[in-house]
Design goal:
Layout lengths: L5 E9 L7 E4 L3 E2 L5 E2 L2 E10 L4 E4 L2 E7 L6 E4 L5 E4 L3 E5 L4 E9 L2 E13 L1 H9 L6 E4 L14 H10 L3 E8 L5 E3 L20 H4 L19 H8 L4 E5 L7 H10 L6 E5 L2 H10 L4 E5 L14 E5 L9 H11 L3 E5 L15 H10 L3 E6 L2 H10 L4
Parallel strand pairs: 1-7, 6-12, 13-14, 13-21, 14-16, 16-17, 17-18, 18-19, 19-20, 20-21
Antiparallel strand pairs: 1-5, 2-5, 3-4, 7-10, 8-9, 8-11, 11-12, 14-15
Length: about 400
């Protein structure tokens, strides 16, 4: 079974198995009276879905058949598409959002499975399309920020605000609680952004959620620190999510397990501090998406994926700067460029507005840039639209 892909397992098993037994007549035999008597043999089948019943547009979904006898298997994908044959695997990509009923049958046995297809294009497909559209720029919002200071960073309210502002990607951060829950927080402690104190790794989720988040002016809100699952559910089908340096205090496997269970492997990508971390992500789930700082891009080129590399703009860069040249070379090899324009990196970059002269400098130095990381998604979207980059 393929990890990270939506899979329907449709197995035909001969023998006495305790699962939906159905009896079919087989070859007759001759009894003592010379008459032929029917012989009966149990035929059973099982059906299961390995991941959540959710996938993105144009994400590949599978029906896997345990079919040693090479029986004819018929698959109806529910959108007018059908497959038939004795293969062990059938695959399909949905091109319209909605809920579908998948049906698979063979030799009188059949199963059905419902799947929901979200309206967001699978990341693998979206990144390819973006690269084929030079000049188009995605907006990634930092810690789910908008210019509304009343919204606490990395909160569910922030997710909704960022989506409303037009962000294409929400960047956020994860940590692991004492009881093994993955929560959303930039800091390793709750001191700076909640009404409480303590290190996340030393606290249970219940203890952490007793405290309220504070907004960007330090005022208390009704929001509490969300789990990764809650955060992703709020974003699902509406916006891509970038898990920055994730996992931090959690393992790659733990973080990706949450993503996989929600059917969001093709909606989430992970920013990693070095190429070895990206390789760990791909080793855990070959269908996952990840990207790196610009220094490590070349070690990941293997022809199987397109991905972003990340750099940060600053006022001291020029066309001869190493990072500028690196991005240009990487773009020629099919790697997309993401540039940070963040106050947290350089205090001369505004946090609650956009200096258009800085943005112009960014695009002059990085004409191949196709994602800008900002605290002001609504303002950035507006400017990029005026410049014909949306």
């Amino acid at each position: 079974m393929k990890t990270g892909k939506i899979i329907i397992l449709f197995a035909a098993v001969l023998g006495l198995v305790c699962c939906k037994p159905e009896t079919y007549p087989r070859a007759p035999k001759t009894g003592d009276d010379g008459k032929k008597e029917p012989k009966k043999e149990n035929v059973t089948f099982t059906f299961s879905a390995s991941t959540s019943k959710y996938a993105s547009l144009k994400e590949t979904v599978f029906v896997n058949a345990d079919n040693p006898g090479k029986a004819t298997v018929n698959v109806d994908w529910g959108d007018g598409s059908k497959d038939s044959g004795s293969d062990a695997e059938f695959s399909h990509k949905y091109t319209a959002a909605g809920k579908y009923k998948v049906k698979a049958d063979f030799s009188g046995g059949k199963e059905e499975w419902e799947i929901e297809i979200g309206s967001l294009l699978a990341l693998d497909e979206a990144v390819k399309e973006l690269y084929k559209t030079p000049g188009k720029v995605w907006v990634m919002t930092h810690r789910a920020h908008t210019t509304d200071r009343d919204v606490p960073e990395n909160s569910l309210k922030a997710v909704r605000a960022a989506i409303k502002a037009g962000a294409d990607v929400i960047e956020t951060d994860t940590h692991r609680t004492k009881d093994g829950k993955i929560v959303i927080s930039h800091d390793a402690s709750i001191d700076a952004h909640t009404t409480g104190t303590g290190k996340i790794a030393n606290m249970t989720l219940q203890a952490i959620q007793k405290f309220n988040l504070t907004d960007r002016d330090g005022d208390v809100t009704q929001e509490v620190m969300p789990t990764l699952e809650e955060f992703l559910k709020e974003a699902r089908g509406k916006v891509y999510v970038n898990l920055d340096y994730s996992p931090r205090t959690a393992s790659t496997k733990e973080v990706l397990k949450v993503v996989e269970d929600l059917g969001m492997v093709q909606q989430v990508f992970m920013y990693c501090k070095d190429a070895s971390f990206v390789k760990d992500v791909f080793k855990t789930n070959a269908e996952a998406n990840a990207y790196v700082k610009s220094e490590d891009w070349s070690s990941l080129l293997d022809g199987t994926k397109q991905y972003f590399l990340q750099v940060g703009w600053n006022s001291g860069q020029s066309h001869s700067s190493e990072c500028v040249i690196r991005c240009l070379n990487a773009y020629d090899e099919g790697v997309l460029c993401s540039v940070n324009l963040l106050h947290v990196n350089h205090d001369y970059i505004p946090e609650y507005s956009i200096d258009e002269s800085q943005l112009s400098s960014l695009f002059d130095l990085y004409p191949e840039c196709q994602m800008v990381h900002t605290d002001c998604p609504q303002e950035m979207v507006s400017i990029l639209k005026k410049q014909g980059k949306r």
